UniProtKB/TrEMBL annotation:
Protein name, as recorded: non-specific serine/threonine protein kinase
Reactions this protein catalyses: L-threonyl-[protein] + ATP = O-phospho-L-threonyl-[protein] + ADP + H(+); L-seryl-[protein] + ATP = O-phospho-L-seryl-[protein] + ADP + H(+)
Listed GO MF terms: ATP binding; hydrolase activity; protein serine/threonine kinase activity
Subcellular location as annotated: Nucleus
Domain of life: Eukaryota
Organism in which the protein naturally occurs: Candidula unifasciata
Function: Component of the EKC/KEOPS complex that is required for the formation of a threonylcarbamoyl group on adenosine at position 37 (t(6)A37) in tRNAs that read codons beginning with adenine. The complex is probably involved in the transfer of the threonylcarbamoyl moiety of threonylcarbamoyl-AMP (TC-AMP) to the N6 group of A37. TP53RK has ATPase activity in the context of the EKC/KEOPS complex and likely plays a supporting role to the catalytic subunit OSGEP. Atypical protein kinase that phosphorylates 'Ser-15' of p53/TP53 protein and may therefore participate in its activation.
PANTHER family (UniProt xref): EKC_KEOPS COMPLEX SUBUNIT TP53RK, NON-SPECIFIC SERINE/THREONINE PROTEIN KINASE
């Protein structure tokens, strides 16, 4: 794509490169999946195409459910690229939590509780609609505008899927828990607030209970692996 060729890479992950450019006058991010040379070309093409479709599907399903995500402008299946809105005037939830913890110390949880409740509510709604993010971290959540307004935007659905199983939802929550506690030490109470809000937001109590039960099962498996290791 000509746009990608003349745009500069500003971030690279394990699966894709991100470029900044303009899209008909609008600030745009291009996410382009690159070729994995260790895979057979046919397999690599197929897997990359499937991941792009899954990412777009999950993003659009979130928007239909009222969950803010970047607007998708264009999908180029030939180059496995997604052109999407650049979320301006935003900070990652990770950087915001770290900033508040550094500034407020032991009182940080009081200030951050509304954010934890908002995160739990958003994730409860997402799982209610059988959307699995696949890479839930506080780096993949943005606060747009004044952080106190709690305008959350979910980004990076590169590992997403649309699944109804409690196992997938439990694993999704476990990934967030591990990432959350790793990035934000001594924030166990905040994560409990996220789970409480998650439970309250879910429209189906039974499905929510199953997801939380699976979360505990995954935790136990993780503890056993740690002990064996």
């Amino acid at each position: 794509m000509a746009v990608v060729k003349h745009a500069e890479v500003f971030q690279q992950g394990a699966e894709a490169r991100l470029y900044r450019c303009g899209f008909y006058g609008r600030p745009c991010i291009v996410k382009k999946r690159f070729v994995k040379k260790y895979r057979h070309p046919t397999l690599d093409t197929s897997l990359s195409s499937q991941r792009v479709k899954s990412e777009v599907r999950a993003n659009l399903r979130c928007r239909m459910a009222g969950i803010p995500t970047p607007t998708i402008y264009l999908v180029d299946t030939g180059s496995n690229s997604i052109y999407m809105e650049e979320i301006l005037d935003a900070v990652t939830v990770r950087s915001y939590i770290s900033k508040v913890q550094d500034a407020d110390g032991n009182c940080a949880d009081v200030r951050l509780n509304p954010l934890a409740e908002a995160i739990g509510c958003l994730l409860g709604r997402m799982h209610d609609n059988n959307i699995i993010h696949g890479d839930l971290t506080t780096s993949n959540m943005l606060l747009q505008g004044d952080p106190s307004d709690l305008n959350l935007v979910l980004i990076d659905f590169g590992l997403s899927s649309c699944e109804a199983s409690a196992e997938d939802k439990g694993v999704d929550l476990y990934v967030l828990e591990r990432a959350f506690l790793s990035s934000h030490p001594h924030s166990q109470e905040l994560f409990k607030t996220i789970l409480t809000s998650y439970s309250a937001a879910a429209s189906s109590g039974s499905k929510c209970s199953e997801a939380l039960a699976k979360l505990e099962e995954v935790r136990q498996r993780g503890r056993k692996r740690t002990m064996v290791g």
